[in-house]
Design a protein that fits this description.
The protein has two domains: 6-138, no CATH class; 215-315, no CATH class. The chain has helices spanning 29-34, 238-243, 253-259, 289-302, and strands at 6-10, 13-16, 19-21, 36-38, 51-54, 57-62, 70-78, 81-87, 95-99, 113-121, 125-128, 132-133, 140-145, 152-156, 162-166, 174-178, 196-197, 206-207, 228-231, 265-272, 280-286, 311-315. The protein has 323 residues and is mainly beta. It is 10% helix and 34% strand. The chain is built from four helices and 22 strands. The chain is elongated and about 85 Å long. Strand 10 and strand 11 (125-128) form a beta hairpin. The strands form six sheets. Strands 1, 9, 10, 11 and 12 form a five-stranded antiparallel sheet that branches. Strands 2, 5, 6, 7 and 8 form a five-stranded antiparallel sheet that branches. The chain has a four-stranded antiparallel sheet with strand order 13-14-15-16, with no helix packed on it.
Length: 323
């Protein structure tokens, strides 16, 4: 998928001892294409039938005895625990495997997997089985019934995938996976036990809602004691002009002469604040409004160095350095 995850449809398949296969579970394309050799004698004897691991996914192979050379992959185990299986044997039908991309700072080299099997109602009617997932010791995706609707269960992976199973009476059920564009994060505020969070005064142990932190250049006196992020060119922003050493607007060629950037380019410069000693002022400015928009997007995405004296000059389209 777009950001490195994998979506696979699994069905029972006969495999041969001593042959190299590429099975879903290994995150990187190059490693997946190399595959892994299946050697019956070397398969992990966690249980009978034997199993072999591809990345974060444990496959289980069934055979009539340990000497046969044709073995059948019909069940997928999760993590190192193959007691919880996601079957794609012919008797029940195929399964869907979603392999997440690797989490930031995760120890394992591959993403976690969510497997959704088919099952049967009675003897023949197809229904959706219960999803299983890898790394059960490092996950929060235990499916839990909702208080508001006991037919629905939900769980969340550490990457941020939300899995919902619906087994409403009279239906064969469904499983929905809501997969984020990128790894989800949580902002956590750690306070003393007697601290409450509310809008209003900062006295009395309360944490104040931040509110708007944007001010116009004409109101610089109200924030000049703080570290500043100054957005906009020196033709329209008097604080930008001051950072560039001018008490009057600098437009067009004058801005280029001072900032060193021209049309289609922008500057991100960090200066010692001209208002308060020990504070910094970061100038985020382009030659025109579109260039300033690119400069702002670059600052948000790349989080450049805020040390005084840092100067970045980039083109607005490619972010290539400006000589």
């Amino acid at each position: 998928m777009k950001n490195g995850g994998w979506l696979s449809f699994l069905e029972q398949e006969a495999v041969t001892d001593g042959t190299t296969y590429s099975l879903p579970g290994i995150e990187t394309l190059s490693t997946y294409e190399l595959g892994t050799e299946l050697v019956l004698a070397n398969l992990t004897a966690i249980q009978t039938p034997a199993s072999g691991k591809f990345g974060n996914v444990q496959y289980i192979y069934s055979s009539s005895n340990s000497t046969v050379t044709a073995i059948t992959a019909d069940i997928i185990g999760v993590g190192d625990d193959v007691s919880t299986n996601c079957s794609f044997a012919t008797a029940t039908g195929p399964a869907i495997l979603l392999l997440e991309e690797k989490r930031l700072n995760a120890v394992n080299s591959a993403g976690e997997a969510i497997c959704i099997p088919l099952t049967t109602i009675g003897t023949t009617e197809i229904a959706i089985g219960t999803p299983v997932y890898t790394n059960t010791t490092d996950a929060v995706m235990t499916l839990t019934s909702l208080t508001s609707d006991t037919y629905k269960q939900r769980g969340l992976t550490l990457y941020g995938s939300l899995v919902e199973k619906d087994s409403s009476s009279g239906t064969n059920g469904y499983v929905k996976v809501m997969y984020p564009e990128e790894e989800m994060t949580v902002n956590v505020l750690v306070t003393g036990a007697d601290t409450s969070v509310s809008a209003g005064s900062s006295t009395g142990g309360n944490v104040v809602a931040l509110g708007s932190i944007a001010v116009e250049d004409s109101d610089i006196a109200s924030v000049q004691a703080k570290n500043l992020i100054v957005v906009g060119g020196s033709c329209i922003n008097t604080v930008s002009a001051k950072l560039l050493g001018s008490d009057t607007p600098l437009c067009g060629a004058d801005f280029t002469a001072k900032a060193g950037v021209s049309s289609g380019q922008f500057l991100i410069g960090v200066y010692s604040s001209p208002y308060t000693a020990g504070k910094i002022a970061m100038l985020v400015a382009g030659y025109d409004a579109a260039d300033t928009t690119s400069a702002t997007a670059y600052t948000i995405a790349q989080k450049p160095n805020t040390e005084a004296g840092t100067m970045l000059k980039k083109t607005s389209v490619t972010y290539a350095d400006v000589a």
